[in-house]
Write a structure and sequence with these properties.
mainly alpha, single chain, flat
């Protein structure tokens, strides 16, 4: 069973590399638009909603 866990990790590494490469490529384009990071107040307002959603998903057995 251990080999399945390691095999899965190895399969995910190339995808992560491709994603990072795509992000670097997109960021180098002159037409790329950047968004402002969320403020602490915005994050604090969102945290209870995210926690509520996680609890509901956990209670109903949803994975997404």
């Amino acid at each position: 069973m251990l080999h399945l866990q390691y095999n899965r990790v190895l399969q995910l590494k190339p995808v992560v590399f491709v994603d990072a490469e795509a992000i670097c490529e997109a960021a180098s384009r002159p037409s790329m638009r950047f968004v402002q990071p969320r403020t602490e107040a915005q994050q604090a307002m969102r945290a209870p909603l995210v926690l509520r959603r996680l609890i509901i998903d956990d209670m109903t057995g949803l994975s997404a």
